[in-house]
Amino acid sequence: MKENVVKNKSFTFALRIVKMYQFLCEQKKEFILSKQLLRSGTAIGALVREAEQAESPADFIHKMAIALKEANETEYWIELLFQSNYIDETAYNSIKTDLTEILKLLISIIKATKQNAKK
Questions:
Q1: Burial class (CB in 10 A: 0-12, 13-18, 19+), 21
Q2: pLDDT tens for residues 58-93?
Q3: What is the gyration radius of the CA atoms in the chain, in angstroms?
């Protein structure tokens, strides 16, 4: 069976988000922004998993599109946490790189699925 790259990357990313959330709460005493990050950052992988059981190509595209929206929201929270000095540049660049990979994968999957659905 072929490896599901987006599934694996989104799960690993969710683990990083959970750890970042724990750091922000315990070390920085930041509870509001970090909760938003936790929700959107872990939703990406959950939606990818949901898409695996999609009822139709349209349902699959819809679930992946929502995952893409959550990834975009996560990007916002990460940038905000960086710009407000809750996370340093090293942490920001590292997690941003992972998120950019996921964003590219989701966009590619959505485009390819839409093209295949037209055939």
A1: buried
A2: 999 999 999 999 999 999 999 999 999 999 999 999
A3: 15
